[in-house]
Records
---
Amino acid sequence: MIENNVGFICLYDHQWTALGNWTQHIAKSWTLKRKAQESDEFSAICQGFENSKKACFVGLHELTGALKYACFCGIPKTDEKGFTTISGIDCRSIFNQTLRVKYGSSLPNNNMTVEKLFQYLMVGVFVEEGWINYDNNTGVITDLKMGINYKINLNDLSLLDTPWNEEYICRTDENRNVWEELLKVCACYDLYLMAEVTINSETNTPQLTFKVHRIYNSRNIKLSDYNVKTKLNQNIVNRVNIRYGDSHTYYTTLYLYNDNTIGTTYDSSKVLFPPVTDTVDKETLDEALSDAYEILKENRFKDRVTIDLTSKLGSTLEDMDFSYYGDLVGYNPADASSVKRLPISGITTDSSGKKILEFGRLSEYWFLD
Amino acid sequence: MKDHKIYTAVDSITDTLQFDVVYTSTGDTIKVNGVPIHPDVDMIEMPSGIGFKQTLDIVEGDTIDYVVNQKINKKNISMVLHFFGNSAYQKYQSFGSWLGKYLDLNTYHIRLSWQVGSLRRYIEVSPINLDLVGREGNCVSAKLTLQPITPQYEEYDNFFTIIHDTNEGKIYNYEYPYQYGGGAYSSNNVITNDYLKPLPLKVKLLGPMAHVYVSISKIKEDGSVENTPYLKVEFASGFELTANQEVVIDAFNNKVYLNTYTVDAGGNKTLVSTTDVFNSVNKTHDSFLFAKPGNSRIAAELDLAGSSCIVNYVRYMV
C-alpha cells in the first residue's frame, strides 16, 4: 500500500517466531532478484540485531507490516558500525538434495499425471527417505528429520491441459538431484516452482509453501518503447540424434523449432540455424529419449532480454510476473516485425526503487556452459 | 504616473529560528522545569534550504508529458550562526557541545523551527557540519549544515482520543445511515492528510480490551466512509488487554509493543514493563497504520468500559 521501497527486516526461528527484544529492524538497503529457474538472490543491510542466534528465516516486510519476501537467512553478520548484513538463501534449496528417486517403482503406471510427479518429487522422495511424514487424508507434512515444515500447493496443475508424456522421464530407480528433476519437469510442461510464505490463520504464523504455477499469460511488448538490453545466443544445441542399445541403433532426430516446440520432422521454415547437433546414446530407448527431450527443452528460450521498468514506458509492465510470456516485437532490430516469445525468468527489485524484468533463460554464466 | 507599491521588510523568519529537542520514541519535547531546552545563539543569519524540492520522472511525449513518478526530496538546510562578546568562542563551543549531546538519533531528534504569522513550522534535523568561520571584531561566526529527517510540519502531536461510549441511543456516525449502541465514536476520529504521501500514525490502545483491533478507512468526497478499511491491525485471538495495559502501534519507529503499568492509590501510573508484541499481531492483516492523502477515519473496538484509543500523527506539508 505504501508506495516506496523502505522496509524492515525480521529474523525468525524455524517455527517463525520473530527474534530479538525489538523484532523489527529498518532495512538500510536491500536487493532481491527472484528467479524462475535458478535460486533467488536476496541481500539486506539493516539496523543491527543484538542477537541472531537461532535465526532460520529472514523476512523483508513493507512498512505496513506485510511480508514481502522470506528466505533462509544464512548466518547474519553484524559489523562494528552496528549494521547487520544478511545474505539470504532461497527456500527452494531444500530440494537441492541427491536422493534415491524411484520413477520405476514409486510412480503409478496408469493414470500418471504431472501433478502426481510433482507430488512424488516434492513429498514422496522425502517420505521414502524417512525425512518427513505425509498424511494422505489431510495433506499435512510433518517434519521428522528435515528441520523445516512446509506445504505444497499443486492446485494450478489441475488446469494443465497438457497430457502426461511418458517420453519425458526415464522410468528407472536412480540417485538423482531432486531440484534438477523438478526443473526438468518444469521445462517440459511450462511450469515454475516458487517458495511462498502464507499465513496460517490458526496459529498466526507464516507458513512456507511451495507452489507450482503455470506459465499461461502472454503480452505483446514493443521493445522500442522500453529501455532494453539484449543478449542473443545462437550457440545452442537444436537437434539431437537418438541412438540406443549395444549396437547404437539410430532411432530418430529431435528438432527444436523456432516456435519453441520440439518435433521429429525436418521443416526448413521452422528448424533453427545454424544446426548444432548432439547425440545421445544410451542403453535403453527410454533413457535416450528422456535425455534428448531434456537437452532440447532446456535449450528453449536461451536468450536474455532485460527491461528497466523505471525508465521510458517501463511502468506499463509493472504487473507482469513469472506467469507471463513476453512476445517481444522488434526483437531483431533489423526486422521490426520479428517477434520472439520468451518467458519471464527474473525480477529484480531493490530499496532504491529499481525494478528490472528479465526475459529468457540464458544464464548469466552462459559462457561457462 | 505609475502607482508603486512600497514593501516594507516587516516580517522576518530569522528572528524566530529556534532549536529544541524531542525524544525519538515518543515525540515529546524535552523540557527542564517545564521549559523546552534551547541552545544559546545570539543571531542566526542567511538560512537556506527551507523550502522544498521535487523530483519528477517524466516521459516526454510529442504533445504532453507523462509523469511516471513524483517525489518530494529533502534539502539540506544551512545557516550562519553569530556569537557576540568577549566570550563568543566559549558560546560557540557551548553550542557545539549542545548539539553533540543530542546527536544520538536513536534517542533524540533535534528540531529547527521558525514562525510565520501565528504558526510555527518544524522540521526534525541532524547536524552534519558545524564549521567555525572565525572572529570578526566582536562577533564569532560559524556555518551550520543540517540534514532533514522529516518533512516540515506545523504542529507536532496532533492527536485525538476515541473513548468507549455507553450511549445506548441512536448515534450518527460517518457511515450512513447510523449505528446503534456502544462502540460508536466521537466525531473527531478523522485525519486529514494534505501531504503527498501517507502519514505514519502512532496508535495507543488502552485496556481493558478483549479484541484488540484498530483500522483506518477512506472518507470519500461525499463524506461517507468506505466499507473496507485500507489498513487494519488486529491481534491474534487470546491477546487481551487488562485495565493497566496499553498496546502501542508506532509506525514512526516501526515498533509494536505492550506497556504494562501499576496504578497506586492516588491513580498515578508507573510503567512496569515494555514488551515487543509483533509476534502477536494477526499476520493476515497489517502491523502498522498510515493515513493516505485525503481524509481517513480511525476505528477501534472499544467495547469495554475504560478502553480508549489515542492516535498521534504529524501533519506534514511541503
---
Amino acid sequence: MANDQPSTRPETRHQLQMARSMCWHCQSEMSGEYFCERCVKVQPVSKDTDYFTCLGFPRRLTLDPKKLEAKFYELSRAFHPDFYQAKSPTEQTISLGNAAVLNTAYRTLRDPIQRAEYLLALEAGSVKEIRTSPPADLFEEILELQDTLEQYRASDRESDQGRRLRASLQTEQQTLERRREEMESQLRRLFTDWDQLQDRGEATSQTRAERDRILKQMRDLLSHRTYINNIVNDLAATIG
Amino acid sequence: MARIVGIDLGTTNSLIAYMKDGQPCVVPDRHDRTMVSSVVALTDNGLIVGDPAKEHLTRNPERTVYSVKRFMGRGLADVESELAYFPYNLTETGGVIRIRLGAKNYSPPQISAMILKELKLRAEAHLGESITKAVITVPAYFNDSQRQATKDAGLIAGLEVLRIINEPTAASLAYGLQKKTQGTIAVYDLGGGTFDISILKLKDGIFEVLATNGDTHLGGDDLDRVLVDLFVAEIRERRGIDIANYPDHMQAVRLEAERAKIRLSDELKTEVSLDLPEDKGCFTGELTRDQLESLVMPVIERTLAPCRMALKDAGLTPEDIDEVVLVGGSTRMPLVRQRVEALFGKAPHCHLNPDEVVALGAAVQADILGGGTTDMLLLDVTPLSLGIETMGGVMSSLIRRNTTIPASAKEMFTTYVDGQTGVDIHILQGERELVKDNRSLARFRLKVPPLPAGVPRIEVTFLIDANGILNVTAKDMRTGKSQSIEVRPSYGLSDTEVERMIEDSFKFATEDISARKLIEARLDAEALIKTTEKSLAEAGHLIPTEEVDGIRTALAQLSAAHNGSDSRAIRARMAELEQAAKHLNIVMLDDSLKKGLHGRKVSDV
C-alpha cells in the first residue's frame, strides 16, 4: 500500500504515501529502521525493499536457517497485527501490510531454491520470463517417458502390461530423482561460488564475467530442475 | 481497553471464557455448568437457547435447530447428502441456507447469533459489565465463506469480532501457556461436526503453525449417525417399524446413540433403550464397544489422511512430532486415541479438558489483542489455496495453502478488446486444478477506463488478514488511483443483509425488553392490588371514609392500567396507589403493633 510519492495529507488510510526518509506521522527525518526514532510509530516497509534487506541479510545464497528464523520471529513481534489492536487505523494498515511482506520474505528466503530464484530475479531480471525447459541431454528420454506415462494411464493397471509399464516408470522416477539431486548439489556449489564472489567484493571485468557465468548456470539449472521436479511429481501422483 | 472475551462457538456446545489474573477461565452458569448446548428452539413463548432448548429436540423436532455450525457459509447443495438427518426445514436464498422456524426464515449466522447472545448474557451476569468485544474460534479448515459467516454471527449478536482464530491453534495457546512446552506439537481436534489437524512449532512464546488440514464435515455427529443407522435397521428388522418416519422419535434415537457412544468410552458394553411410536412399547438391545468400534472405524480412518497430508506439507515425519495434543469431545473415544497413537508413534497428551481448552485458548488470544499478554504470539496459516479463474476454467493459484497469514499477492490485469470497460474476476479457494472442483468465494468486476486493448494496467491486491479472511483492493497503475471493489460473495450474506439482521436483532431485543418490562410491571401491580385489598379489609375501618374512597379509586385505575400494555402507565398508577394507601399502611402497622403488644407485660417489650 505504500508508495514513494510525497503527500500533502500523510495520514489517510487508503493513500499511505511517504517520502523514503521521512516519518509518515511526525515528518521528522527517519533514522530508525522500521520505527521512527522520534515518535516511535511503525513505518511501512517500502515496496522497493528486497526480501534480503527486509530480513537484514546480505544477498547471499547460503543462509543460516536458525538466524533467519530468529530474525523472522523478532520482526513478527514488531509487525504482527495482534499488537496493533489499540493503535490508529493507519498504524493497523501498516502493520498488516508489513506483516504480509515479512511473511512472503521469510517464505521465499527460507527455501534454498526459492531463495536462488528470487536472487536471480533481483540480479538478472524476472525468472518468470524463462520458461522451464528440459535439459538437452535428457530430451529424448523424457519424450519416451511421456509416451510410457500415457500408455500406463490408458492401460489396465492390474494387467501384465500395466505392471510392466509401472515397473519401468518406477525405474525412470528413480533415475530422475537422482538427476534432481545431482542438479541440486551443482546448485549448492554455485551458491558457494556466488557467496565467495560477493565476499571478495571486487569490481573487475573478470569478476563481472564470473558473476554472469554463475547467474547463467544457475538460471539454466533452476529451470531444468523445475522441469524435472514437475515430471517427478507427476510420476509420483500417477503411480503412487 | 474494554474487556475482550474468548468464545468457542461449537457444533454441539459453546463456551465463553476470559482472562483472570493471567489465567484463562470459563464462565459458568448458576449451576456451575460451563457449556451451553448449541441448540435454538422456537416455543410458544418465543425463541429459547441452550439446555432448555435441547429438551425440545424430541418434543418439537421441526422447530428445534441443532448443529447449525454445519450450515455456516454453505449452500444447500453442500449438505444435500445429510439433509435427511435434519428434522427441520432447510431452504436456500441467495446462496445462503435458510432455516424455517414457525413463520420466519433464519440464516445460520442468525441462529448462531442467538447462541452468542446467550453466552454474552452469561458473561455479563457473571462479570457485571457489558461485553462488546470478542475473539471467536472456528475450525482451522473453515474456508473464507464459513469464517465470514461466523463474523456476521458475531455482528448480529452485537459483538465486535476482533479476531477469528482457529480452534486447534487456540488449544495450543492454552496448552503452551500451561505446559511451557518448546518443540513441535500436533493438535488433533475431533469435535462435534468438524475435524482439524494442526502442526505447530513452539519456541520462545512464538506459536508458528507449520501446516494444517482437516474436514469441516467430519465429527461426533457422523459417529452418531452410524449408530442411528444401526438402531433404525434393527428396529425395522426386529419390530417391523420404520422409526425414520417419526421425526420426534428419530431425535430420541439420535440422542440415545450419542449417549451410548459416550458410555462406551468408559464401558465395554451398554444397554440401549428406545420408546417406539404408536404405543408399540420399548425397544431394548445391547451394544458392545467392539461393535461400535468396527462401525465407526471408517469414520475415524478418514481423519488419518489429513494428518499425513499436514505432516507432508510441514516437511515432517511422525518422529519429528514431540507431542500430540487431543482436543474435542470425540477424542475421548479409546479407538480415536489408539489410532492417533499408532499414526504418530507416541501416546497422545490428554490431561487437558478437551471440551474447554479451545475456549480457554480464545481467552488467551483475546488477552494478547487487549495488550495483557505480550510474550506470546500466534503465527497461523491459511488452510486452503486462494486463486482466480483463468482461461479454460482453470484455477491459477495466488496464495498457496499453509502460507503464514497475513499473506498478500498482487496480480496485474488488463483488457483484450479496445474500449473494454470491465474485467470480471472470479475468486476461488481449494486445491484442485479446475474451477468447478474448487470453492467459489466471490466475483467482482474491475472497472477499467475505455482505452485500447492492453493499455489499462490494474493491479489487484489479494490480502488474507490475520482472521484468514480475504480483502481485495485494486489500483489503476496509470493514474495511481485506488478503486473500491464491491465483492459479491458466492456463499454468504451481503453487507446490506447483515446490516438488516443486526437491526432486526436490536429491534427484537427492544421488543423483548419491553415485553419483559410489561410482564414484570403486571406481576408487581397484581401483588400491590392484592396486599392493598387485604389491608383495606383488615384496617379500612380505622381510616376516614374519604381516604377509603381515594384508595378504591386508585385501585380501580391500577386495575385498568394492568389490563393495558403500557408498563410505564402501570408503574405510575402503582405509585399513585402507594401514595393513597400510605396512611392506611401506617395505621395498620400501629394497629398490629398494638395487637402484638396486647397481653404482654411492659417489661417484656
